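Hi R.,

Here's the chain you asked about this morning:
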Amino acid sequence: MRIIVHPHELGIGGSQLNAIELAAAVRDRGHETLVFGRSGPLRQRIDELGLEFVEAPPQGRRPSIPAARALAELAERRHIDVIHGYEWPPILDGVLAAAGSRSLTVVGTVMSMSVPPFIPHSVPLVVGTAEMREYERAAGRHRTHLLEPPVDLEFNDPSLVDGAAAFRERFGLDGTGLNIVSVGRFAHELKLEGILTAIEVVGALADATGARLILVGDGPARGEVERAADAANRRYGAGTVVLTGPLDDPRPAYAAADISLGMGGSALRALAYGTPLVVQGENGFWRTLTPASADQFLWTGWYGIGEGSAAGAARLRNELAPLLSGAPRRARLGDFGRRLVADRFSPLFAKLFVSHSTASRLESG
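And the predicted structure, written out as tokens:
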């Protein structure tokens, strides 16, 4: 098959990184794939994987009429069989591009925490959690399939990460304290509440524990994050909160972590580095991955909804305290997370799914 993969953007983020790496996995199974989108930091990963990239026009409001028109023209010129959109704007771009075509199939992947109801039920969907799959099937989306976010353990092997020492030197990580690392987009929805809570909590713990918070990313909420970080550094000491900005390659940051905070695909990638993980959600949700909590995350995804944002700071303090005070616990939970990723989320699992399930379903429409 000939497939266009259309991520919702090419900034650093889990959904779009999955789109690119799965495009390469599908290519390696013998299909012709290309990536369509606006250039961004993940363009480097596209090039590393040897994928063809086609630049999209400026998109403006989304779904984008210019993007849909360019997709339709590209599909006709290259005799494309499938447009695979990741998240709702590219999915709707694909629907518009395929309008009136009898030969072009649109498929969608939603790695967000819910499926927008305005995505047409005629679009076959791939979702990232078992709970979402069952919910959407019960709501009438019978062609909803599960593909848990894959993690490339070779690419994310901490022993092979270049630039880890340079990263530590660049950001003043001198080895005297514990690094609590979060890699993700600074978005108002889903993310900002937890980021601000983490700044507050780690700042208050810094003097007693020697912990520092390292935030890797960028996004529309960057101003609020910078103001909160500046306030924490004035109150608790310079370097308590470190903002790295966006990194084309965040692997050195993952490798520097003693404890990771995160949700979704970023949380899974953090586990590949053998560090304990506290899963971030909304409305005050924080929970450490342990053998007792693993089943919850395997059902709902790497996310949760708490009992109220006001309780978030206390909840995060309670999750961090035993990790900050106990190196054996950190080692034990880091090893557990690494084994979980290797057993459940490795590229081998993803490639087998693509080969034996997704490809046949895409082909049949």
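The two ends are 12 Å apart (CA to CA).

Let me know if you need anything else.
M.
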